[in-house]
Amino acid sequence: MKIGELAEITGTTVETIRFYERENLLRSAARAGNNYRMYSQEHVDQLAFIRRCRSLDMTLDEVRALLLLRAATAEDCSDVNPLLDKHIEHVMHRIHELNALVAELNSIRANCSSSRPLAECGILSELESGSATSNASTHPRRHIHGTH
What we know:
The chain has a two-stranded antiparallel sheet. The chain is elongated. By secondary structure, it is mostly helical. It has 6 helices and 2 strands. It has helices at residues 3-10, 14-22, 41-55, 60-71, 80-109, 122-129, and strands at 30-31, 37-38. It is 55% helix and 3% strand. It has 2 domains: 3-55, Multidrug-efflux Transporter Regulator, Chain: A, Domain 2, CATH 1.10.1660; 78-129.
């Protein structure tokens, strides 16, 4: 199948498929005589795996590591656990950060409980004066090794 068909079957954009190929996440497709990429069911399955990992907020490096482990079928699956444990730790940390962000936003929101002129808006005033002191939103911890 051509790239457009693969995109339609998997619900992935053509640009994303090409990106995954460039990032060596998706195996390069064979080329037909007209130089079109020709994809197989293996590509559909691999792309479904990648998309599932990405839907779980895994980085490209995490997906790459899981793809390597997935391909090494004779190996022990215990190597997958530390990778997933690290990702769970990251997600738990993000939840903590997001809870702190919600608390900060609620605190800012509490500065305005009635209608008044914008020049007297407590929210805008707080955003101006507190912009340099915000902790939850200015220092987010980034994911382990890799890009989203």
